[in-house]
Amino acid sequence: MQPPDSELLKAVADGDTVALAELYQRHAPWLSIRLTRRCNDDGVVADVLQDTFVAVWRGAGSYRGEAEVAGWLWGVAVRRLVSRLRRRAGRAEVPFEDVRDGLEASVEEQVLEGVEYGDLGSALARLSPEMRAVVQATVLDGLTAREAARLLGIPTNTVKTRLFRAKAQLRRELVEVPL
Amino acid sequence: MNTWHVDASTLGAWVEGTSGPIASASIEQHLVQCAQCRAAVAGLVRIEDVPGSWDDVLAEVSGGAGLVERVLVRLGLRAGDAVVVGAAPVLRIAWSAGLAAVLGFILVASMVGDDHGQALFLALAPLMPVAGVAAAYGPSADPSYELGLAAPYRMIRLVLLRSAAVLLAAVPITVAAGLLLPLDGATGVAWVLPALAFTVLVLGAGSWVDPWAAAVTVGAGWVTAVAVSARLGDVLAVLAPSAVVGYVVLIVAGALLIALGTPAWRLDGQWAPMQPGRERT
Questions:
Q1: Would the pTM count as exceeding 0.95?
Q2: Which of A106, B36, B111, B134 has the most CB atoms around it within 10 Å of its CB?
Q3: Do B45 and A32 touch (CB under 8 A)?
Q4: Distance, CA of B48 to CA of B266 (rounded, Å)
Q5: CA distance B233 to B240
Q6: pLDDT tens per residue, range B153-180
Q7: B8-37 confidence digits (pLDDT tens)
Q8: CB count, 10 Å around CB of B141?
Q9: At what angle do helices A156-171 and A105-114 cross, to 10 degrees?
């Protein structure tokens, strides 16, 4: 069987470039697609991917082994994307259209307890594109409000307001409606 | 627990960018926790279509690139190539083996007197450094053997690149040896040039034709040339000044081919790690 990602990451922490190559082979494809959905400049995505794996090389030792390696990688990659876009003083060229099961833990739990997937999907689909973008950046991509603001090119307060409204709308549609 | 997987067409749509926002978001959340579906994406995306390259990552992390690598990059080698040529721990063994082969042949050349001996020597000499380097890169000798395997290189390319490096280093050494030792200077020293020329030529040609075919063609051509000149009574004709000019031209041409080369050297369409003996797909 293939060694799990966490084993590879341990080997990378010990300076094993073969393990890093294997991680690259496993994760670069999906990371690149997901990054491309957020920024359609191949040059930027290339830089971000390279930075990400170099960061993994240097920071493998700091991985605590609590979360999925894939999630950790995405966390590194999306933050690299944010800082890369900020350096360029531009903004993501692809608007954030895709979104999904945002919501903080408590809300999410309630949703999972009593709501069918289709309802959540349609509820999210009814969010305005602006609100969905904010939900995606914060909840799905795991960015802070400030990071999301940089990525989307809008003020931090606007991110917070939109997120608040989006949650309220989802809560109304998903939780308060009798099932 | 996790028994649900994204079906192939949905995943394909996501890779193409045609899945809707809700489906995309759902897929992305699923991918983070499902190795099987991530592997499916890896099967849909050719690694060379991923923006950026593993070479650059490898060059960066092998970082603080040593003197050798930086000089090689300066000379126009791609960063990834420089790393595999220069990979520090590897270098010692391969270089010693390569140089030992080179120097050994100089000694043999000085001892071989008769025409048959010279012909045999000349026929084999240019092939020896490559053989020496190849032998030095077995799993037992090379601590970074696996690095070589994991990198998306064909093994023959790796061996040729490193042979070229050894031969380049061998030129001044052989010239010095030729001056210091009471050798038949022409034979003892000059064969390094065709050796270098052939190595570089095959490396360059490998961007367009099968490297093994190129190597066999060049090798056969060389042996024929040696045999013919031996027949004609002067085996050393292959190292005459005019021929030497020819080798220099070949070296330059080979270097140009390398510079113009495409990454056709990569494993065809796949990034599967190289296995010994599997070079020819």
A1: no
A2: B134
A3: yes
A4: 9
A5: 14
A6: 455 666 666 667 666 666 666 666 656 5
A7: 888 889 898 888 777 888 888 888 888 889
A8: 13
A9: 30
